[in-house]
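Tutorial handout. Part one gives the primary structure; part two gives the three-dimensional structure as tokens.
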Amino acid sequence: MKNTPAYWLMKTEPDVFSIDTLKAQKTAPWDGVRNYSARNHMRAMQLGNLVLFYHSSTEPVGIAGIAKVCKLAYPDHTAFDSKNIHYDPKSTKKAPTWFMVDVAFVEKFKHFVSLAELKAQAKLKNMTLFRRGRLSVQPVAQEEFEWICGLGRP
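Part two.
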């Protein structure tokens, strides 16, 4: 899969799951994604792909650090649990609709890179983040990834 992106951006609400939580746990499943495009992106991920860890629904929103994919996509068990907020009665163990990957902590940026700061960068103007802002899992070009890392590591 040579055309598969090796870099991603994944959004999470830090009061639910933050970069600090991942750092403490070392690895964690990325569950609860209920958007077909985001699901398909997770299914395309490869081991070792790097992920920009994006804090959403907070002030300010932005990129807190980096994780990496440490387990390939597998059925999201939260879809099968009727007591879970992510339950989907149409998804079954025999025919799962939703998938998740596991991610491992890599790094917390010394400088939190806010959305406003990202938007101010001409080199990032074509990012999926600005075209499909609500998408919780999205590809990132290598050049964008490297530029953002430079912002986060002053």
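Part three, for discussion. The chain has a mean pLDDT of 95. The longest helix spans residues 142-152.
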